[in-house]
Amino acid sequence: MKTLLITGGTSGIGEGLAKYYLAAGNRVIIVSRNKGDLHNAIYLQADLSLASENYRIIENIQRTYGAIDGLILCAVLQTARKDALITQEGLEFTFALQYLSRYILSNQLAFNDDSFILNVATPGINSPINFDDLEYRRKFNSVKANANANRLNDLLGAGFKRKGVRYILYNPMAVRTTGARSVFANPLMRIFLRVVHRLVGHEVDEIVNRIVKVLQESSSQSFSAYRLSKPVDLSMKTFDPQRGKHLEKITKKVLSNVREL
């Protein structure tokens, strides 16, 4: 029996993967704001936009369950927002949940040998990172803030190095979920997105099956990235190791400031 930790496991891809691993007889721990209803799943409630909550969950898991065999990162807020949402720790919510939480969990959890981290994001897309406004507070736009967080995750994966733990970035493209349909506030864009999902969107079960195959295919690689079932070219600028080191330096400073609060 393997132990899997899934963030964002109460809906969408996270829930689909939780069902898959539970059906295979594994222990599945789901961290989310609200408790779900999957039979035999272990639910731990937390606000992962807060660094302190991430550290609390890590301590809880390691004390109660020990090292884990897989970390699946799906927690995301896709709902359109006009204004930046600032957490109790003084950080922009999208940055805190979709990047900083993933950084903390990836680097601080204890893993067994031959483990994996699956970071569901959007690798394979070229868009710039604004290092001068890493949280994307100025001229806030929730779509651009999400895109920025995803590029930070590209660098997180590219720079990740822990013995016995492989890192997989995964882009599911268009998925027919409620969250994905709430990305845009503009009614016309929502209609457009609904049409796109109807024409080229994928059901959650299909994406889960693709992810399972990707995890098998990438088993010999310490770092890999995929769009659906196709490997992403790791020579893309979005995986630049020097920018990754720069980001890690900034991230450690951010966390140091938060822990001093």
TrEMBL record:
<dbReference type="InterPro" id="IPR036291">
    <property type="entry name" value="NAD(P)-bd_dom_sf"/>
</dbReference>
<protein>
    <recommendedName>
        <fullName>SDR family NAD(P)-dependent oxidoreductase</fullName>
    </recommendedName>
</protein>
<keyword id="KW-0560">Oxidoreductase</keyword>
<dbReference type="InterPro" id="IPR002347">
    <property type="entry name" value="SDR_fam"/>
</dbReference>
<dbReference type="InterPro" id="IPR052228">
    <property type="entry name" value="Sec_Metab_Biosynth_Oxidored"/>
</dbReference>
<dbReference type="Pfam" id="PF00106">
    <property type="entry name" value="adh_short"/>
</dbReference>
